[in-house]
Amino acid sequence: MNVHDMVRAKLTEIGADGLCYPEHECGCALDRLFPCGHANEDCVAARKKMCTDCDNTECKYRDTGNPDLGWCYVPINSERKEGE
Q1: Residue 46 falls within a domain, yes or no?
Q2: pTM, rounded to two decimals
Q3: What is the DSSP string of 21-75?
Q4: What is the C-alpha separation between 47 and 37, in angstroms, rounded?
């Protein structure tokens, strides 16, 4: 088991959809972790949200037509599992 597998397992356990780095408005899905090429210590567990449902109308990723950029990743409380 490598680091990606361990991170993916924990994120799945807590009901996260991936990771996000809030200060840089980026995120990644469970099946494409660390597209930047490395794990950043400031990344946090996140849920996926459709950009069109987001209140941030200035977001540079909104309405791009690219499926990787058509979602916002917003931080979640990693101590709480979905349904609790």
Answers
A1: yes
A2: 0.69
A3: EGGGTEEEEGGG--TTSS--TT-EEEEEEEGGG-S-TT-TTTT---TTTSEEEEE
A4: 21
Q: Looking at the domain assignment, is residue 16 inside a domain?
A: yes
Residue 69 phi/psi, 5-degree rounding, is: -110, 5
pLDDT at 81: 45
Render pLDDT for 7-56 as a digit per residue (tens, 0 to 9): 999 999 999 999 988 777 778 889 888 888 777 888 999 988 776 666 66
Query: Quick one: pLDDT at residue 11?
Result: 95
Burial of 22 (0-12, 13-18, 19+ CB in 10 A): middle
Residue 55 lies inside a defined structural domain of this protein: yes
Provide the residue range defining the domain that includes 33.
Answer: 3-75
Total domain count for the chain? 1
Neighbours of 7 (CB within 10 A): 19
